[in-house]
Amino acid sequence: MMRLLASTVAAQCGLAIRITKTTSALSFCVQSPVASAVRLRSMCSSAPGAKEGRLQVGASTVHFVEAGDGNRGVILLPGALGTAWTDFKPQIEGLPALLPHHRVIAWDPPGYGKSRPPDKEFTVDFYERDAAAAGELMQKLGFQRYSVVGWSDGGITGLVLAAKQPEKVEKLVVWGSNSYISDTEANIYEGIRDVSKWSARMREPMEQVYGVDHFPKLWSAWVDGLLRIHHERKGDICSGSLKHIKAPTLVVHGAKDPMIIPDHVPYLLNNIKNTDLHVFPDGKHNIHLRYANEFNAIVAKFLLE
């Protein structure tokens, strides 16, 4: 177990807040919707043995990718508006070899990517709704217990899931995630609302998923959702629930991450009972993409301990 003072991590993470968004290259296949039951098929991607499927979860038809043949489970939870392939291609391709006893599941959360229509509604409880859906998906795939690996918004979903269903989550890995929204971050979210101000490199991958005209609307709705949490819940996403997490938790952090204030790392470490920390000194928000091989090895080692 590791506990770090806020000043220590702040020294590691000290930075001026900037606005960036990075996403990996896209790889998509066309598949018709299925109202219920899973249909799996080989991927038209470079991930050997990976399969796509759809499964009815609550009122949503959820798209997911599955790789590996083990009897243990791990689910990868993407960031805001992210999908299995935009956010986790290196993990879908690399983790199965490192985790031969696991099946790696990556999903498009309800309302994102191929888990549409409909688009997501960003209510004040949308993280809780995503967490419940992720848990139901894993149960329907046959996992009574499983590990959770979540990035950014997906890390928040993972924190909520581990707190709400502690008996289900074996281990938890999060990075680029926060359990509350500060006033500073509320201003950041408002500042990145207008996607026309983003560089083409940052904007175009999401435009490929959602369309040039629709992506700005969905992104603005996400901003509104977070500002609603900031206003109606005084910024509390799940900070009050962290004490209920029982799973051993690994917080991975890019010391130059511009998307979260440095205070979040020590807050998670000091409010989750069994935590450890791994810092990428030059890492930013997308450490799992920028340092994919090292990141995969760190996650695999933690899950196998």
UniProtKB/TrEMBL annotation:
It comes from the Eukaryota. Residues 74-203 form the AB hydrolase-1 domain. Transmembrane segments: none annotated. InterPro entries: AB_hydrolase_1, AB_hydrolase_fold. GO terms for molecular function: serine hydrolase activity. Pfam families: Abhydrolase_1 (PF00561). This is AB hydrolase-1 domain-containing protein. It comes from Anopheles merus.
